[in-house]
Design goal:
elongated; alpha/beta; five-stranded parallel beta sheet; 9 helices; about 240 residues
């Protein structure tokens, strides 16, 4: 299939390669641009574990000048992609969640203990789930470290818009509610909604479908679990 990839550039390139291996043709149209803030001060003393809800959090952390001082702190990752990046970065203990923030909170409750030290949530400026509030309700001390931000696109990428207008796109992959919101806004602003009827929307989670509801996609498909493997299974 000819698929539109809406992920940020680094994630999009990896996904494009994976789709090619599966026999699909991908067109990357990043709707978010990641800006890292690795210089943010972080207190290492008393840290029980790091919680990472995205691969971009790991990328931001690997840009830190004091990275080596943190590599022996256990890192709890939201899913397999984030866990793999953390292991590649050199973290000695990496535990993998089941794909979303709620599952990561459950992993923290199971593997960490209130009173045993601070949990540090490596996050972006916009979060999908409030790990700090959830875990503090269970007695944990949680610091939220905003190490990156995702800036939304102001215009639809030209090649992607051209492909949609020509009816060449058979599917669009969505990994977050925010990307879905940006896609919807840009389609409406640039008159692209009428060209979605030939495409299917592939959504990582039900909440993404909710923000796309009403757009005239041919069909919607939602992954059975909030991870990339489950999303790509839909393509079969």
């Amino acid at each position: 299939m000819r698929l539109l990839v809406t992920r940020p550039e680094e994630d999009g390139a990896a996904l494009e390669a994976r789709l090619k291996d599966l026999g699909h043709e991908a067109l990357c149209a990043p709707l978010l641009t990641i800006r890292y803030h690795p210089e943010k001060p972080l207190k290492r003393a008393g840290a029980q574990a790091l919680l990472a809800t995205s691969a971009n959090g790991i990328r931001a952390f690997t840009r830190r000048a004091d990275l080596n001082a943190w590599l022996d702190v256990p890192l709890l990752a939201v899913g397999p992609t984030t866990a793999a990046l953390a292991a590649e970065a050199g973290f000695k203990t990496v535990l993998e969640g089941e794909g979303d923030a709620k599952a990561l909170a459950a992993l923290a409750r199971a593997r960490c203990a209130p009173g045993a030290g601070r949990l540090i949530h490596i996050s972006g400026a916009v979060i999908a789930g409030d790990l700090k509030a959830w875990l503090e309700a269970d007695g944990f001390e949680v610091d939220r470290a905003v190490l990156y931000e995702a800036a939304g696109a102001d215009t639809f990428p030209a090649k992607a818009a051209e492909a949609l207008r020509a009816g060449r796109i058979e599917g669009v992959l969505f990994y977050s509610r925010r990307t879905g919101e940006i896609f919807r806004r840009l389609c409406e602003e640039e008159g692209l909604t009428d060209f979605l009827a030939s495409a299917r929307a592939y959504c990582l989670a039900p909440g993404i479908r909710d923000v796309l509801e009403g757009l005239p996609f041919r069909d919607f498909a939602v992954a059975g679990a909030p991870n990339e493997d489950a999303l790509l299974d839909l393509l079969a």
